[in-house]
Amino acid sequence: MLRVDRIERGIVLDHIQAGNGLRIFDRLGLRDVSFPVALIMNVRSTKMGRKDMIKISDTLELDLTMLGLLEPNITVTYIDDGNVTRKEAIPLPERVEGLIECKNPRCITTYERHGISVFTLVDRSTSEYECAYCGERARM
Amino acid sequence: MQTRNFINSLDLSPSQYDRLFDLADRINHAPATYAQRCQGKVMASLFYEPSTRTRLSFEAAMLRLGGQILTVADPKTSSAAKGESLADTIRTIAGYADLIVMRHPREGAAQLAGEYSPVPLINGGDGAREHPTQTLTDLFTIRTFLGRLRGLSVGLCGDLRYGRTVHSLIRALARLGDQRFVLISPDELRLPDRVLSSAAALGEGNTFEQTASMDEALTRCDVLYVTRIQKERFFNEEDYIALRDTYVLTAGKMQQAKPEMIVMHPLPRVTEIEANVDDDPRAVYFEQARLGMIVRMALILDLLEGGDDAAG
Lengths: 140, 312
Hints:
The complex is a heterodimer of chains A (140) and B (312).
Chain A: E1 10-17, H1 21-27, E2 37-45, E3 49-57, H2 67-70, E4 75-80, E5 83-89, E6 95-97, E7 118-123, E8 128-131, E9 137-139
Chain B: H1 14-29, E1 42-47, H2 52-64, E2 68-72, H3 86-93, E3 99-104, H4 109-116, E4 121-126, H5 132-146, E5 153-157, H6 164-176, E6 180-184, H7 193-200, E7 207-211, H8 214-218, E8 223-226, H9 237-244, H10 251-254, E9 262-264, H11 285-305
Parallel strand pairs in B: 1-2, 1-3, 3-4, 5-6, 5-8, 6-7, 8-9
Helix pairs in contact in B: 1-5, 1-11, 2-11, 3-4, 5-6, 5-11, 6-7
């Protein structure tokens, strides 16, 4: 059995769909940090069968806003002094910049070099976003 | 201070519309008072798509305010052809002009340009998305002739499916509330459900009725807004020919209409309004085009002077 030490202070990202961990790892820029980080893949899970996990030690400051978009089932646990201080799901972000590609071929963001895609959440129940430029809808 | 742009027809609140139309009224009644108001100011018109009427209307508006205009003859064959981004073109031209008017074939282009422009930018049409100064023109025309923008029976006739002009007008009127919309079109060209539902959500007391018969609907309208039915929207020519004449407004049909009804059209008109309707005092489409220039004068003044109408 693979063992990763429990962390005294840090963040645990759990319930990541197996295979999605590396993408989230990269998206959070964790390759370039100086604090200890562990990406654990294909962990056995009673709920999910297999899952990925990321353990981040020595920091509680990470911008996780976009995680809800990348992995809707993710849970985030904050640990301080060896104790769980907070456990939360990440809701879909209201505004997403640069992550969703507009599928409308007539949209300026698909054409313009300076165009960064911007989508805003229009319906949380259906996970539907709308392009802030052309109005094209995208379902996550 | 953040630069003010005019990108979408719903960017202005109903009270801002009222204020703008009050200014347009004053310009319309005393144009000489405003003839020098933009002296020393330069407007750049940047049209990535051909548009004779909209461009001329803007340029005439600026000239009648005493301003100067810079026209980019064909941006497609100049800077854009060399690979320059829209953001760079806008920032360069903003160094030469106090105001930019832009038409672009891409949806959302005006919003992106507005984000980069340090001077006010007006959307002169961005693909199928918006043509907000046409909406200003239409609302100002209705207000000028009927004296109100609420509690109207508005018949919209023709191609309601693809016409962005109609979509914007319905939304802008629906937001004000208490309107009765009569949507007159063949089944193939009915108003899209998304436009109908978004309009219905904007205001209170509105009703929407869909019909295929112009003759019957005509009798109840305060405003009849006619649009062109384009041949290329139909799968086969027989369908087009069969329907085309159903939606032609004639002097005979006008006899059924209310005496105070107005007939509007965004122009160019092709066959959908017969020439013999033009002499009917209720046919206001050429005056509508002129009022479009007047309301663009008001918009230019408002954006350049921050709404401070000292002469008004």
